[in-house]
Amino acid sequence: MKLFFIDDSGDIGKKSQGSLTRYYILGGLIIESEAWSPLKESLNKIKEYHNLDPDRQIKWTYVGSPSKNIDDNPLAKLSIGQKIDFAKEVLHLISRNIENKVLFQISDKETLYKLERIKKPRHIFNETYELLAEKFELFLAPESSMTTDVGVMIMENLTDNVRDERIKRIAVQLEKEGTIARELKHIIETVLYVPLENSTGIQLANFCMGAIARYLEHGDDKYINIIWKNIPIELGHPDSLTMERIISRMIGISPNKRIK
User: Is residue 254 part of a domain?
Assistant: First the structure.
């Protein structure tokens, strides 16, 4: 069974309302269920090597944070160079096993907000989530293969009950009705929620999305290059493609009205 740990980067708001990002990215890390324990052990070793509490959660934002307060940022005592090394080590932990896959959906908000059906920030999330679920289904059951698998989507449990309930509603609807393009027969249950501080998978997913956002928003490819080979080939990653072209394939817009 595949475990798909999901996080996001950016926001779903409009630029006119204060949003600082053009892109909203939703996705994360797909692993085999038996790979979870070795990943957790290896991540803890990386934390310990840098004199960090292995039980303390890590986030991508800590890498670039100027905060010197250890209570706010567990990486506060590291130099800028050490923070960069730490981020690279976390991403190399993922890339060492080619069976670990990085799957994501990018929404270009500037384009989407011009569409008649996209009126509210939640419409951005709904569109992005549905397209991501569609990609996960295709990953589990490739059209060109007789071999299939099952998987579960796992997200961080937030204190925003309205957000969590909205995601559950979308997940239940997709489970029953599928997307416009396909039924989701291989994604089991609805979304599962776990606390970030207790989830190795969500923390790793967070770093994956941070690496992709860093490339999209700033053109910095030193992080995404590490996990480049872990993007599923069947979803558009032959070696002949440039990074710009594979990223463009991950920016999807449905031609039809999606879940509201």
Answer: no
